[in-house]
Amino acid sequence: MKITRVTAEPLEHARVPQLLVHVEDDAGNLGTGECWWGVATMQQDVPGDTLAPIAATVDKLLGPRCIGWEAGRIERIWGDLMRYAYRYGDEGILRCALSGIDLALWDLLGKRLAQPVSQLLGGTVHDALPVYASLPGQRELAPLLAEVQRALAAGFTAVKVHEFDVDLVLALRDALGPDPILMVDALGRFPPATAAHQSQRLAEARLTFLETPLYPMRDYRLLARLRRDSPIPLAVGEHEWSFDGFERLFKSESVSFVQPEICKIGGLTFARRIGTLAELYGVPLCPHAYRLGPGFNATLHWAFASPGAVWVEVPFLPEGIDFPSGAVLPPLVNGCANLPPGVGLGDCRR
């Protein structure tokens, strides 16, 4: 089956835009993937503007290169696109666009073979995987506590908050009591000079991990120094792109949990390599995900087929805000998620 069409579909939204990619073959089969969504802001003039550079890379640079290729030769296509576009840079927007195409190809292959993608990866190695609700930042205790309690009521047993005020996190733990499992993403806001002290204070909150405490996020020298002084395990990797970058991260011994973003790093084809690299270095895999849709579904398939996977992030939005893809939360059982139903990447839309 030959590829006949590759198109990007921006899904505009003021807060949570998404960028889908569709790949069609000459038999009329359609696969859908997802790219990273850019950095959305409430101040942007046109919702979805941040998607435009990545969508253009799909439509104008990488997509046309795919036309005529056999759709099932996913590894070959991935390598060809990387070599072709290398002079534009091998990270950043290029990888985001490649991710969407790659995930669409895996979805297409699964649909053609009437198999879930995890089966194409060798089958699942987990019966279920624990997940945590990832909450937007609130900056005040009352709304933060309300959102955490709403996530617990929805069936989560673990919650990650995007807060960098140590006193706020400690107040949250006091309000919650010893349960639930709690993680913190500090969004790179801890100054290197005081990060160790802040981490030591946060130990009172009994965190499972502290995510992205420092800026620059990829300064692994500073991160390794913090890890030596921190009583809390550190989680990073969302802002990493390449094989060399992840290897540099692992060699620095600065990470306790690694968090690759499948919609950034080049899709499932590349994610498999990073999963194996993490196993080699003995670092648990905790994939990053902050959209529900094809990208999240691909993350679940990858995690379920990866022996080293221990957590999966699940975005948990405030009431009244939905993802424009129409995808909803997966069913939860005892704080764990199962694979989405259906073949290919599956479907969790209403």
The overall number of domains is 2
- In terms of DSSP E residues, the strand content is 15-25%
Q: What would you report as the Rg, rounded to the nearest angstrom?
A: 20 Å
Morphology: globular
> What is the averaged pLDDT score?
95
What is the tally of helical segments? 11
Give the class from helix and strand content and strand pairing: alpha/beta
Query: What portion of residues is helical?
Result: 25-40%
Distance, first to last CA = 31 Å
The CATH class of the largest domain is identified as Alpha Beta
What's the number of extended β-strand segments? 12
* String of helices and strands: EEEHHHHEHEHEHEHEHEHHEEE
Looking at the structure, the CATH topology of the largest domain is: TIM Barrel
Task: Please give the largest β-sheet.
Answer: 9 strands, mixed
Oligomeric state? single chain
Can you tell me the residue ranges where pLDDT is under 50 for at least 5 consecutive residues?
Answer: none
Task: Tell me which CATH architecture of the largest domain applies here.
Answer: Alpha-Beta Barrel
Under CATH, the homologous superfamily of the largest domain reads Enolase-like C-terminal domain
